[in-house]
Automatic annotation (TrEMBL):
One of its GO terms (molecular function) is damaged DNA binding. Belongs to the DNA polymerase type-Y family. This is Protein UmuC. The gene is umuC. Keywords: DNA damage, DNA repair, SOS mutagenesis, SOS response. GO terms for cellular component: cytosol. GO terms for biological process: DNA repair; error-prone translesion synthesis; SOS response. Residues 3-187 form the UmuC domain.
Length: 423
């Protein structure tokens, strides 16, 4: 097998630059929910010493040195990702979309030179979306990820690193110069423990016995070592497995104290989670809701959750909304500044394996499947929230929606914000 990993360079920032060419060459960052911390940064921002995850308030003063911070425009990034992935899919019969900006592709059986072939992919993505990419090629998915890291870090590879063209000695020399924490699946905690065992580089890890790694760490680390040796142990997943839990939550733009606002927020989170549940043709047997204050708030701290179980597994917005609001009544406390809330659907199973109740407690629940189909269809066509449950309401949601004071236009997702070309 031969795998390729294609990903967009500083993807969020690159999406912004596509529609604002004046940002090219500038120190640019994208910020997380509520403009909290850095989640994407350009090379120019790195040169200013900005780290991933660094809070915005700590670096805001660097605006004087040319730093530009933008709120994350997730609708735009998702649309650009769909376009990029569809282009990549034209070049491989098998594709696994790994994340919003990363895609594995099966290069087995491609007759032409793989480096030249990868440059064609890069050129097509850049031409049709404006997103710059790098490509890593390897005999396993882990080696492809490693090759992609090399392609990004070493300009001499011109954006494509093909490890299949190296002999074992060249590959070993390259591995000796890469820290073990750069390996796919090796996080900071495991990297620290590996360091305690004298394993500091990718080469050191590749030499470790897989059996010892499984005993000391996990089966996954054992497979990773075999992958680094060129033995494929992680297959390409063209269709992701259905999620076992679905979470919908949000930190509020401003602290919230009123119960009506929390009811509205939780109702919307239920609608989002249930929509995801129906998209994978599943139902959930239980749900947990939670509300809490900010851990950084110097005032009164409070957090609580409640688990609810409807009579029958469901994917119905109305069912879970009713139980969520009932549960909220038992944990809401007045005078508290709530900063985050959310719902988590659990005990998920395929919808076609659930047997209906012979004597249902609430018979109308079994007759609303078509209503949910209609709701999803309308919202897909006219935009999320076009039709919604009454408890979401029409409250002033600026308090509990994300704070995005620096967000860009919906260049590809809103007709009113599409760029207009003038002669």
């Amino acid at each position: 097998m031969t795998y390729a990993l294609i990903d967009g360079n500083c993807f969020y920032c690159s999406c912004e630059r596509v529609f604002r060419p004046s940002l090219k060459g500038k120190a640019l960052i994208s910020l997380s929910n509520n403009d909290g911390c850095v989640i994407s940064r350009t090379d120019e921002a790195k040169a200013l010493g900005i780290k991933m995850g660094q809070p915005w308030f700590e670096i805001k003063h660097l605006e004087e040195k040319g730093l530009i911070g933008l709120s994350s425009n997730f609708a735009l990034y998702g649309d650009m990702s769909d376009r990029m992935m569809s282009i990549i899919g034209r070049f491989s019969p098998c594709q696994e979309i790994y994340s919003i900006d990363e895609s594995f592709a099966d290069f087995s059986g491609i007759a032409e030179d793989l480096t030249a072939y990868s440059q064609k992919i890069r050129a097509a993505v850049l031409r049709e979306t404006g997103i710059p990419t790098c490509v890593g090629i390897g005999a396993t998915k882990t080696l492809a990820k490693l090759a992609n890291h090399i392609a990004k870090k070493q300009p001499s590879w011109s954006g494509v690193c093909d490890l299949t063209q190296l002999d074992r000695y060249q590959l070993a020399d390259m591995m000796k110069n890469i820290e073990v924490g750069e390996v796919w699946g090796i996080g900071r905690r495991i990297a620290r423990r590996l360091g305690e065992l004298g394993i500091y580089t990718v080469f050191d890890l590749a030499r470790m016995r897989p059996e010892a790694a499984r005993a000391e760490f996990s089966v996954v680390v054992g497979k990773t070592i075999q992958e680094l040796r060129g033995i494929s142990r992680i297959d390409l997943e063209e269709l992701p497995d259905p999620k076992k839990q679905i979470i919908s939550s949000r930190s509020f733009g401003l602290p919230m104290t009123d119960r009506a606002g929390l009811q509205s927020a939780l109702s919307e989170f239920v609608a989002i989670a249930c929509n995801k549940l129906r998209q994978q043709n599943s139902v959930a047997a239980s749900m947990q809701i939670f509300i809490r204050t900010s851990p950084f708030d110097k005032g009164k701290q409070y957090g609580n959750s409640r688990l609810v179980t409807p009579p029958c597994p469901s994917a119905d917005n109305l069912v879970f909304t009713k139980y969520a609001l009932r549960a909220l009544e038992t944990i809401w406390r007045p005078g508290i500044k709530y900063k985050k809330a959310g719902v988590m659907l659990m005990d998920i199973s395929p919808a076609d394996t659930v047997q209906g109740e012979l004597f249902p407690v609430e018979p109308e629940h079994n007759n609303r499947a078509q209503l949910m189909v209609a709701l999803d269809g309308i919202n897909a066509r006219y935009g999320r929230g076009s039709v919604k449950t009454g408890s979401i309401g029409f409250h002033d949601r600026e308090h509990w929606y994300m704070r995005q004071e620096l967000i860009s236009q919906g260049y590809t997702t809103s007709w009113s914000e599409v760029l207009i070309a003038r002669a």
